[in-house]
Amino acid sequence: MTSVARVPCTIVTGFLGSGKTTLIRHVLANANGRRLAVIVNEFGDVGIDGEILKGCGDENCSEENIVELANGCLCCTVADEFVPALDAILARHPQVDHIVIETSGLALPKPLVQAFHWPAIKNRVTVDGVVAVVDGAALSEGQVSADLEALSAQRAADDALDHDDPIEEVFEDQIACADLIVLNKRDLLDTEGLERAMTTVTGALPRGIGVVTVAEGKVDATALLGLGIGAEDDIENRMTHHDSEADHDHDDFDTFVVPIAEVADPASIAQRIADLAGAHDVLRVKGFAAVAGKPMRLLIQAVGPRVNHYFDRPWGQAEDRQGKVVVIGLKGLDRDAVVKSLAG
């Protein structure tokens, strides 16, 4: 009996706001005939990343090939979420050539790689490679994400808080499990900034792997897909902070959804979101808003005080012009104050 070739899967990991979704959208839009499918893993009830990826512009990547899972970490929900998602994708005809898995920014990739040994999975798919996307602009400033220096100092000064930095550990674990590092936001760096960012990345690498620098997530799909690593069979070379833990959780972080009333202009909501980074323990904000007098939906993505926004598509005729964003921050942030701030 002839064995069926396993479908390769690329796991794209990276800290909050590093540019994972932008990178994957670029790959989808430049699939060049390759039939791709995407599994998007998000925290919270708003499928923002899936919405951004849909309508990628390539006929070989239809919207039905983008599966959103928003009930927590994939590696924690293998049986309930991940296996059914793979079943649905692998049943498609014609068969997909490659599956891209976008992890949550809070996820540890190693347990997900280990999940590829599950009996329901291992004979049908393989981990082609793990790609870690890092924020070059933040790294050049000595941080893994935007404007966390003051927050770290506050945590270190408070004896009531755990002094271990979960953000640094997540970043280092993502690097440790990667087969390729994509240093994103090259366009925001001068020569010295790029050198600082590269020094941080290479200093965190526990083994020799490639690092590529890109702007706006524009990496050639041929460089990203087809690494042929079989990472699930190379797990012993991926040493992380959490190897001694039987289980892991995300109790260091809070995530919740905030409805956004129609705004007068994009600048007003962008300023309110930027102010959150300085006033509260907010790491990431992403979502949509309706702008008065505008038929287009406003897409919002923020990392710390850096807020990007643009009109991405018209609101549907039967669609409620209700904005909402997902807020991700450190455990214990003042939700009521965040909601009040976003409400204007």
What does this structure look like?
- Belongs to the SIMIBI class G3E GTPase family. ZNG1 subfamily.
- By secondary structure, this protein is an alpha/beta fold.
- It has helices spanning 20-29, 48-53, 78-90, 109-114, 136-140, 149-157, 166-176, 191-204, 221-224, 266-279, 335-343, and strands at residues 7-14, 36-41, 66-69, 98-102, 125-135, 180-184, 210-213, 253-260, 282-290, 296-303, 306-314, 323-330.
- The strands form 2 sheets. Strands 3-2-4-1-5-6-7 form a 7-stranded parallel sheet, with helices on both faces. A 5-stranded antiparallel sheet has the order 8-12-9-10-11, with helices on one face.
- The longest helix has 14 residues, at 191-204.
Largest sheet, if any? 7 strands, parallel
Strand order within the widest beta sheet: 3-2-4-1-5-6-7
Number of strands: 12
Q: How big a fraction of the residues is strand?
A: 15-25%
Uncertain spans: 149-163, 246-250
Q: What count of domains describes the coordinates?
A: 2
**Mean pLDDT score:** 78
Distance N to C terminus: 65 Å
CATH superfamily assignment of the largest domain? P-loop containing nucleotide triphosphate hydrolases
Query: How would you sum up the global shape?
Result: globular
What count of helical segments does DSSP give? 11
CATH topology of the largest domain: Rossmann fold
As a whole number of angstroms, the C-alpha radius of gyration is 20 Å
What is the subunit arrangement here? single chain
Give the name of the CATH architecture of the largest domain.
3-Layer(aba) Sandwich
Question: Helix- and strand-based class?
Answer: alpha/beta
Can you identify the CATH class of the largest domain? Alpha Beta
